[in-house]
Design a protein that fits this description.
The protein has 500 residues and is of the alpha+beta class. Among the domains are: 3-66 and 177-241 and 333-388, FAD/NAD(P)-binding domain (3-Layer(bba) Sandwich); 412-488, Rieske Iron-sulfur Protein, CATH 2.102.10.10. It contains seven helices and 25 strands. It has helices at 35-46, 79-112, 133-142, 175-188, 300-314, 356-372, 390-409, and strands at 3-4, 24-31, 51-54, 70-71, 119-127, 147-150, 163-172, 192-194, 199-205, 208-213, 218-226, 243-253, 262-265, 271-275, 283-292, 322-330, 337-340, 346-350, 428-433, 436-442, 448-451, 463-465, 470-472, 479-480, 486-488. The strands form four sheets. Strands 1, 4, 5, 6, 7, 12, 13, 14, 15 and 16 form a ten-stranded mixed β-sheet that branches. Strand 17 (337-340) and strand 18 form a beta hairpin. Helix 1 runs parallel beside helix 6 (356-372). The longest helix has 34 residues, at 79-112. It binds flavin-adenine dinucleotide and FE2/S2 (inorganic) cluster. Flavin-adenine dinucleotide is lined by residues 31-37, 54-57, 62-64, 66-70, 198-199, 227-229, 232, 247, 249, 287, 326-328, 352, 354-358, 360, 489, 492.
């Protein structure tokens, strides 16, 4: 039986924290308890600042607890493209910042004594198609990265690849244990964390900020860092400047020893692998099957495509022990946004392109320096206020036209059934109830959950995600539980009930 949970969240004890039930004053408010929020909170605390961290759900349980756990400067085959598009200076900044982040994470793990299965090893990107990896290796080396052209056979992956690039001495860890360690160290040193305390509003107040939670509590601070994957609500307009993309993961036992190196394909479809220490020598994690959040009719096919790949590569029939999915955001010019959000008192970090363990560690240092008024060498490449080049603007226009179409077309989608007595156990979807569209799901205990399937962010129609039992919004990536609770923003309010 496959467990529907990330292999990390299923094997870590994340600490629990109280709900915020008294108003607070502090130096810095951090909103969001994923990798970026927790790392920023620790960095600021180490500078002697008072920090309050508000988490809408439970710390570490959204994207950061669902990653592949690779901390590497090898982000697929990106460096030749970065150089061509952004020039040498920015490509250099991106490369150096991320390579330093690999060491920065290791330093934090050792200093805080976090037990998170940390190990060093090679990471390979390989091509089974047309990607020019000879140039990628050359550019990456010129940028000072530990990159080498490699024989694909070195990967230990039994596939036929045309070429590969190896980055030496990259890092692997158990992300949920890493996050648990960060949170424990932060609170042990006097940091205040509150869970189930979703922030709904954030405004300037005097020289600082005031935030309000869904339960009406207030936090007044000199600075606010919004590290909520995508800034919540409409902060900085980032919802219209980035796209949400969901990936799927499986943890399996192979019939033979698993490759010990990290690997990732340069060509679509993405297949990213790493060893799964908890699964023993034959344990393997495979992540991929990417698509826009809310953009796939049946996400079970995404999971199946990963299983099929393993079966084909190893000539076997595996049943995953764990399967999970998560989303991350991409920007039109492929670089994250980190820093001061336009038109808002908030500092933000978003658009990590599925490389937020390293990019997000860079972001945390940049956010700390912005709060302290210090220069930071990466502020230009991650500039949160940029619009980007002409190609980026064209991409933005295209993305937003698509969102407009999604908005208009949503309720014309085929309804699944004429009434709620048609909702089978474990199934969900859109139903017609007395001429109204109702979202319904019957859980495994036979309880029926109904919602108004309209996103509370900006009103787009939602799609039922059968593979994960969530309501997903294709417009800007909000995700909701079957009972309507917010799982991922930018939405801050739960779904309405049909009877409201
Ligand atoms: C499947 C997958 C695999 C990946 N693998 C890797 C990898 O191997 N290496 C790598 O470098 N990167 C990887 N990434 C990318 C990386 O995981 C992300 O970029 C990173 O985790 C983002 O961190 P975050 O803190 O911004 O987001 P999150 O971890 O999502 O944290 C945001 C937090 O904010 C909270 N929140 C949201 N709204 C509010 C609100 N209004 N009030 C209070 N709290 C709120 C959420 O509940 C959440 O806990 C992967 C991504 C995916 C999807
Ligand atoms: S996330 Fe913006 S409308 Fe749904």
């Amino acid at each position: 039986m496959t467990i529907q949970n990330s292999v990390w969240l299923g094997t870590a004890n994340l600490p629990r924290y109280d709900v915020l039930d008294t108003d607070q004053e502090t130096d810095v408010l951090v909103v969001g308890g994923g990798l970026i929020g927790l790392t920023t909170a620790i960095y600021l605390q180490q500078e002697g600042l008072g920090v309050v961290l508000l988490e809408g759900g439970r710390i570490g349980t959204r994207t950061s607890g669902n990653t592949t756990g690779k901390v590497t400067s090898q982000h697929g085959a990106i460096y030749a493209g970065l150089l061509d598009r952004h020039g040498r200076d920015k490509a250099q900044q991106y490369a150096t910042a991320n390579q330093e982040a690999v060491d920065g994470v290791e330093e934090l793990v050792r200093r805080l004594g976090i037990e998170c299965e940390l190990s060093r090893g090679p990471s390979f990107v390989y091509s089974t198609g047309d990607t020019d990896l000879a140039r990628e290796a050359e550019v990456a080396r010129e940028l000072g990265l530990p990159a080498h052209p490699a024989d694909p056979a070195e990967m230990g992956l039994p596939i036929t690849a045309a070429a590969a690039v190896r980055f030496d001495d990259q890092l692997l860890l158990h992300p949920a244990r890493y996050l648990a360690g960060l949170a424990t160290a932060f609170s042990a040193a006097g940091g205040r964390i509150f869970e189930q305390s979703r922030v709904t509003d954030l405004d300037g107040k005097g020289d600082g900020v005031e935030a309000r939670t869904a339960a009406g509590r207030r936090v007044v601070a000199r600075h606010a860092v919004v590290a909520t994957l995508l800034p919540f609500g409409t902060i900085g307009g980032y919802f219209a400047r980035s796209r949400p993309n969901q990936s799927h993961g499986i943890a399996v036992q192979l019939p033979v020893e698993a490759p010990t190196a990290m690997t990732i394909s340069a060509d679509a479809p993405t297949r990213s692998t790493r060893p799964w220490p908890g699964g023993g020598p034959s344990g393997l994690i495979v992540v991929g099957a990417n698509h826009e959040t809310g953009g796939q009719e049946d996400t079970n096919t995404s999971y199946q495509s990963l299983v099929d790949w393993v079966d084909e590569v190893w000539g076997t029939k595996v049943q995953p022990e764990y399967r999970w999915s998560a989303e991350d955001y991409s920007t039109p010019d492929q670089l994250p946004y980190v820093g001061k959000a336009p038109g808002s008192p908030a500092l933000i970090a978003t658009g990590m392109h599925k490389w937020g363990l390293s990019n997000g560690t860079v972001a945390a240092g940049l956010l700390r320096d912005t709060v302290l008024g210090r220069d930071n060498p990466w502020s230009e490449v991650f500039d949160a206020g940029r619009i980007g080049d002409a190609r980026s603007v064209a991409k933005l226009v295209q993305d937003n036209l698509k969102v407009g179409k999604e908005f208009a077309a949503g309720h014309l989608r085929r309804l699944l059934g004429p009434g709620l007595d048609h909702v089978e156990v474990g199934e969900g979807g859109l139903f017609d109830v007395d001429g109204k569209t109702v979202g319904a799901y019957t859980d495994l205990e036979g309880r029926l959950h109904t919602v108004v399937p309209v996103c509370t962010h900006l009103g787009c129609p939602l799609r039922w995600n059968q593979g994960d039992s969530t309501w997903d919004c294709n417009c800007h990536g909000s995700r909701f539980a079957p009972n309507g609770a917010v799982l991922d923003g930018p939405a801050t309010k739960p779904l309405a009930k049909p009877e409201d």
